[in-house]
Each structure stands twice: as C-alpha cells, then as structure tokens.
Amino acid sequence: MADDRERERIEKELKKAANIPDEISAVGLISSRTGAAGQILAVDEAVKSTNCTAVSIELPRDTKGWGGHGNYIVIGGKTVTDAKQGVKTALELIDKHA
Questions:
Q1: DSSP state of 20
Q2: CA 40 – CA 19 distance, rounded (Å)
Q3: What is the pTM assigned to this prediction?
C-alpha cells in the first residue's frame, strides 16, 4: 500500500492527465452510448443548480453499427457530496430532456 505522499502524487498525475482543475476534489461521470443533447442539457442545468462544474464533455462516435454518437461527461465538485448531487440531479433531468 502506498503511503500518503505516493497517493497524493498519483492523484495529481491523474488530475493533470484528465485536465481536472486543482480546485476539483471529486468527480462524477455521466455517459451514454446513444444521444448527447438531452444529457448535455441535463448536466448544464444540474451544474447551475448545484455546487459543481462540467469538467469535460466528449462525444465519441460509435462506428460499429450501434446508436451513432454517445457522450462521456465529467462533473466535478469540491467534495464527494457535491459531485454526487450533481450526478444525481443530472440523471433526474435526463428523463426530462432526453
């Protein structure tokens, strides 16, 4: 098991590789193999109503004959509770927008 300094170093390397700002301490993920507009609208509304930010949005293209484009969205917060609330709110809103 790594000591505290080793865990901190790995965390900083992960943040750097994923372009996660230093003020973000916890992340939540939203993804889907199909669609993107409803999920993006839901995440936009969720981060505006919670203590979160949209860290990144990727729109991968499924070229294997499934549903077309999908989405991979990272929501960040200062605490785990913030990130969880952002994801929970976004998931509830996806039903409204998708």
A1: -
A2: 19
A3: 0.81
The Cα–Cα gap between 30 and 14 comes to: 18
In sequence order, which ranges of 1-98 are alpha helices (DSSP H)? 4-17, 37-49, 80-97
Long-range contacts of 53-58 (CB under 8 A, 24+ apart): 53/21, 53/24, 53/77, 55/18, 55/19, 55/20, 55/21, 55/24, 55/27, 56/18, 56/19
Q: Is 56 helix (H, G, I), strand (E, B) or coil?
A: strand
CA–CA separation, 21 vs 34, rounded Å? 28
Question: How confident is the model over 45-62, as pLDDT tens digits?
Answer: 999 999 999 999 998 876
Q: What is the DSSP string of 37-49?
A: HHHHHHHHHHHHH
Question: Quick check: helix, strand or coil at residue 61?
Answer: strand
